[in-house]
Amino acid sequence: MNSSLIIPTRRQLFLGFFSIGLSGFGGVLPLAHRMLVQQRRWLNEEEFTELLGLGQILPGPNIVNMSIAIGSRFHGVAGAWLAVAGLMLAPLIIVLSMVMLYDHYQSLPDVQGTLHGLASAAAGLLLAMVLRMGQKIELHWQTVSLAILTFVAVGVWRLPLLPVLLVLGPLSVWLARRRQRSGDESC
Amino acid sequence: MLILLSLLASFSLFSLMAVGGAVTLIPAMHSYVVDSHHWMSGQEFAALFAIAQAAPGPNVLVVSLIGWKVAGLAGALVATVGMCGPSSLLCYYVTRLWQRFHGSPWRRAIERGLAPLTIGLVAGSAMLMSEAANARWTGWLLCGVVAVIAWRSRINPLWLLAGGAVLGWLGWI
């Protein structure tokens, strides 16, 4: 199975992440999966899931973490740098050009109106993300109350993030471990 | 210079708190740049988020835009490096260790334990951005319709953003 996988050169690594960075709108992960597993075959399905899981539990931007993990796996420190640089370079230039244009023309009523509509739609996409994540949540009174508690703490009470994470993070992991031990998968 | 140092320090700390990606940080970033330092208004913050969503690339780019708004090009670079640096370093070392814990039940427990927190944080971000972005009821309506379409269909989100932009341009939002 591993023999069918391809080990990218440094150049391919950079160019691969370059194209991932450029082509993903509103989140890059689905694209990354298609390219890394199906098209270029740098990783198999299992390895991808494993790296994704790791990227999600570590702090920081998921796709950046994934680039670091994949880059370093093939070419060490240099590979990690190349993958992240490839991922970020073009989008950074594009987004900065866009914001410069916006700043220049933001006083025009047309631009203001357009941005209002764009901002409402962008907030809607974020809500959709919550709905999709909510569908996949493990249905147990503990997970549901922890999700609600986190939301209320950060979104409603506006408590600072760090103490919230330091209290709820370990608590939630400990509860998950207890559920595993007792083999209790549902409520 | 002081502003750049403040940006670097704050975003480095955010980097290590971003459990579940940059989107979970929106309330924290909002309170830092809007409420504490008054570097921009809530509406401007929402506009930056919208621009980041409309551009190709990872969501984390909203951080670069915030940095840019606060301190120009240097601010953008400093905020981006701060946001990606510490977490990337951590990721680099942990990836190597991770293989050893392949069979450990704690690994699964950490994944399962962090998932509900991530949802709660993203929900907090979504609420904050909706409040900042929607001034009129038409805005809320658009926001809700986009949410349902994006949730229920596999349409490219770019079309929804484009639709929102056109409605806004017509002056309806």
Question: How would you characterize the overall build of this protein?
Answer:
The complex is a heterodimer of chains A (187) and B (173). Chain A is an all-alpha fold and 187 residues long. Chain A has a domain at 1-105. In chain A, 79% of the residues lie in helices and 0% in strands. Chain A contains 7 helices and no strands. Chain A is flat. Chain B is built from 7 helices and no strands. By secondary structure, chain B is mostly helical. In chain B, helix 1 crosses helix 4 (61-98) and helix 3 crosses helix 4. Chain B is globular, with a radius of gyration of 18 Å. The longest helix of chain B has 38 residues, at 61-98. Chains A and B meet through helix 1, helix 3, helix 4, helix 5 and helix 6 of A and helix 1, helix 2, helix 3, helix 4 and helix 5 of B.
Features:
A: 187 residues; mainly alpha; 7 helices; B: 173 residues; 79% helix; globular
Strand and helix map with partners:
The complex is a heterodimer of chains A (187) and B (173).
Chain A: H1 10-23, H2 29-39, H3 45-57, H4 62-105, H5 109-136, H6 141-156, H7 161-182
Helix pairs in contact in A: 1-2, 1-4, 3-4, 6-7
Chain B: H1 2-17, H2 26-36, H3 42-54, H4 61-98, H5 105-133, H6 137-152, H7 157-169
Helix pairs in contact in B: 1-4, 3-4
Can you give me a brief rundown of this structure?
The complex is a heterodimer of chains A (187) and B (173). With 187 residues, chain A is mostly helical.
Shape summary of chain B: globular
Q: Multimeric state of these chains?
A: heterodimer
Mean pLDDT of chain A: 87
Order of helices and strands of chain B: HHHHHHH
Low-confidence stretches of chain A: none
Number of helices of chain A: 7
Structural class of the secondary structure composition of chain B?
A: mainly alpha
Give a count of the beta strands of chain B, DSSP E runs of length 2 or more: 0
Rg over C-alpha atoms of chain A, rounded to the nearest angstrom: 20 Å
User: How far from one another are the termini of chain A?
Assistant: 39 Å
Our Rg estimate of chain B from Cα atoms comes to: 18 Å
Shape of chain A: flat
